[in-house]
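Feature request, filed as a ticket because there's no other form

It would be nice if the structure record came with a short human-readable summary line next to the tokens. Right now we just get the raw output. Example of a typical job, pasted below so the devs can see what we mean:
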Amino acid sequence: MMPDLPGYLMTCLRTGKLAFLAILVSGGIVLQILACALYNNWWPMLTVIMYVPLPMPLLFFVGSDSSSLLTVSDSGWANATKFLTGASAVGSIAIPVILKHAGVIGWGALAMELSSFFVFVTAIMCYLGMGNEDDYSML
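Raw output as currently delivered:
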């Protein structure tokens, strides 16, 4: 990235990126819990069921090449990964919307659930972008 910077400064920048990811994930968890606690309705926690399998296809099928997610590929495993990740993402949005349509949760809980989802997606995208240049990559 920036080879002319001293080593201690590069370590500080990497630590800042890791702290930013931790803050994003923590913010998403707080929004998820607040969507339930503020409205005294714990049904929105059903979206956690979809958050757990969301990264699993990425971890199992893609391996060490995360750039294959952003390109067109002929690999069946890469296509299966994209499909399963997309299905989990759609489920993460659909569950709170269905709960709102059924009258189980209110507009505030729906807004907090969707904002929690977008915070998690931002964290995952930042992680994938950071994984190409840092030592924090598992993919």
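Something like this underneath would help us a lot:
The radius of gyration is 18 Å.
The CA atoms of residues 30 and 116 lie 8 Å apart.
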